[in-house]
Amino acid sequence: MGSRSEAGPVNEQAVANLYGSMRTELNQIYSKMTELEIEVSEHSLVMNAIQPLDPSRRCYRMIGGVLVERTIKEVLPAVQRNKEGIEEVIGRLNEALERKKKDIAEFEAKYKIRIKKSDNDVKEDSNKKEGNAQGVLVGPAAATESK
Question: I need a surface site. Which of 1, 12, 87, 93 has the fewest CB within 10 A?
Fold first, then answer.
């Protein structure tokens, strides 16, 4: 009988560990998608900046840590292809995200998992709301004060 009571917490701990790793994977997917969306935005900015320029104009591009000289005519299609490739990866990550969400929901239903916020979490959330505007530095005002 003693072994059964010991098996219960081990099982609960195993379920908790598995659930935690699933949540971690979900957060990693979110992080990667955010990172890639920023890259797409940067690619769009570059494309918008160089599109109206003369195609024979010289420009520079970083390839594998090496800065190379090219023309806009050569660089623009490459930047477009890279952007499309990143968007495709984001699409696949979005599909993986939806599958992971579904898996987590099924796991939560199977093991009757509910997330509870502790008092500390609630206090931290209210502190975060109050502190969102902190850390903003305005350059000209700081320069005026030093005169």
Answer: 1
